[in-house]
Write a structure and sequence with these properties.
With 410 residues, this protein is an alpha/beta fold. The chain has a six-stranded parallel β-sheet with strand order 1-8-5-4-2-3, sandwiched between helices. It has a two-stranded antiparallel sheet with strand order 6-7. Helix 10 crosses helix 11, helix 11 packs antiparallel against helix 13 and helix 12 packs across helix 13. The structure holds 5,6-dihydroxy-NADP and zinc ion. InterPro entries: ADH_Fe/GldA (IPR001670), ADH_Fe_C (IPR056798), BDH-like (IPR044731). GO terms for molecular function: alcohol dehydrogenase (NADP+) activity; butanol dehydrogenase (NAD+) activity; metal ion binding; methylglyoxal reductase (NADPH) (acetol producing) activity. This is Alcohol dehydrogenase YqhD, Fe-dependent ADH family.
Length: 410
């Protein structure tokens, strides 16, 4: 028994029963989310009043100019009397040189608010810009190659989400590619959370089907990466997670059948946010080994993130399922509805992974590294040797494990 705080009764910290319990946690999410059709025109004018005059309007390759979002937002900014500096051309899988370009501009123009209009790539690039614009050192070295402490106040960031999947709109995560070093890596700094995020499902209607599908698979991947980690005992996070996984599978099928199904599209938006706004991670170790492998495939091939995950998840899980058997059994029954009658635990676990692989084929995502642009086996090995290793996975992978996973994904 240990006495905590003077005079208080002891807490029995050492006598907790059960196997692996929920990890201790502190939960905070500082992003204010506005969700629903019409939310941008309804709320952005008022929200803008909280910020200074100089706004950086940041976006990607121009989809917002074709679907009317650019026009709607620039009119709101004009009506609010803002001086707008545009920063465009943020590419998918944003690179560090683009971060530096944006930071230089933000400094020069003394930007008061960065308004990121786009998907994960625009959001992530802008989070890094918000830090780099006020930091004197090299943010790549100090915040991405290693975990740093954000002791400066980043430029305030607001987000208008236009494509769903990464969940970047409600976390401090930013995945950046250093194109010279061929390293793609992400960190989640709560100080980089956007101050507000506007999530209008109608804004996602113009997203091409392939991106809609790969983005939603990214959300499912986030859920699985959290679910397949300790603790295994019944816990709130896993229970919510199963409901979200079933929901994404259901809603993605519905959205493929009818892209104008507002219920399905709006569920996909919020499920994606929920998967990465830290709620599901509470008390969990989390894995993300599949992401770590995919990021390196992306660093070498610039492949679509969700497509890379679709290729790697089934072979990764076939490689490690024995190390987390009870959870893979639960996945098969509770997520895919597989009847356990007459099946051993191992058969059931494999049936769940097969159901996932079948779903990936059904929704039309790639299943081989070759389709992602890894065109020879030697390159697959080279990429495998650059992957980071996750401390939270059911099995601490070795280089040889990753090579084997890549070989079976080739
Ligand atoms: O660039 P534009 O022309 O806007 O086109 C984009 C891009 O080609 C298009 N698009 C976006 N909104 C659209 C639209 N097209 C038509 N209508 C719209 N409304 O969609 C394409 C993909 O955009 P992108 O932002 O690259 O996709 P996504 O949201 O999947 O972001 C991917 C990046 O996020 C990282 C990934 O690694 C990748 O770099 N991630 C970030 C995470 C985080 N911060 O928490 C977690 C994730 O696991 C992920 O790693
Ligand atoms: Zn992801």
């Amino acid at each position: 028994n240990r006495t905590v705080n003077k005079g208080q009764k002891a807490l029995h910290l050492c006598n907790v029963k059960g196997g692996t319990n929920m990890e201790n946690f502190i939960f905070e999410n500082s992003t204010k989310a506005y969700f629903g059709k019409g939310c941008v025109s309804q709320y952005l004018p008022d929200v803008l009043k909280q910020y200074g005059e100089n706004v950086m309007l940041a976006y990607g390759g121009g989809s917002i100019k074709r679907n009317g979002i650019y026009e709607e937002i620039t009119e709101i900014l004009k009506a609010a009397g803002k001086t707008v500096t545009e920063f465009s051309g943020i590419m998918s899988n944003p690179v560090y040189t683009k971060v530096l370009e944006g930071a230089k501009l933000a400094k020069e123009k003394q930007i008061d608010l960065i308004l990121a209009v786009g998907g994960g790539s625009v959001m992530d690039c802008c989070k890094a810009i918000s830090l780099a614009a006020v930091y004197d050192g090299d943010v790549w070295d100090d915040f991405w190659m290693k975990a740093g402490t954000v002791s400066v106040s980043p430029v305030p960031l607001g987000i208008v989400m236009t494509v769903t999947g990464t969940g970047s709109e409600m976390n401090g995560g930013a995945v950046i590619t250093n194109e010279i070093m061929k390293i793609k890596t992400g960190r989640d700094y709560p100080a980089l959370n956007a101050q507000f995020a506007l999530l209008d499902p109608l804004y996602t209607y113009s997203v091409p089907k392939k991106q809609m599908v790969s983005g939603s698979f990214d959300s499912l991947s986030h859920m699985m990466e959290i679910y397949f980690s300790l603790p295994n005992e019944d816990n709130v996070s896993d229970d919510i997670n199963e409901a979200l996984m079933r929901g994404v599978i259901r809603d993605l099928r519905k959205a493929i059948a009818d892209p104008d199904d507002y219920t399905a599209r709006s569920n996909l938006v919020w499920a994606s946010t929920m998967a990465e706004n830290r709620v599901l991670k509470l008390g969990k170790k989390t894995d993300f080994e599949c992401h770590l492998m995919e990021h390196q495939v992306g660093a070498y091939t610039d492949c679509n993130h969700g497509c890379g995950l679709a290729v790697l998840h089934p072979p990764y899980y076939r490689h490690i399922y024995k190390d987390g058997l009870p959870k893979f059994v639960r996945f098969a029954t509770n997520v895919w509805g597989i009847d356990p009658t007459g099946k051993t635990d191992e058969e059931l676990a494999l049936a769940g992974i097969d159901a996932l692989a079948d779903f990936i084929k059904e929704i039309g995502l790639p299943t081989t590294l070759w389709e992602l642009g890894v065109t020879d086996k030697q390159q697959a090995e080279e990429i495998a040797d650059t992957c980071f290793l996750s401390p939270g996975s059911y099995r601490r992978l070795t280089r040889e494990d990753i090579r084997e996973i890549f070989a079976s994904a080739y």
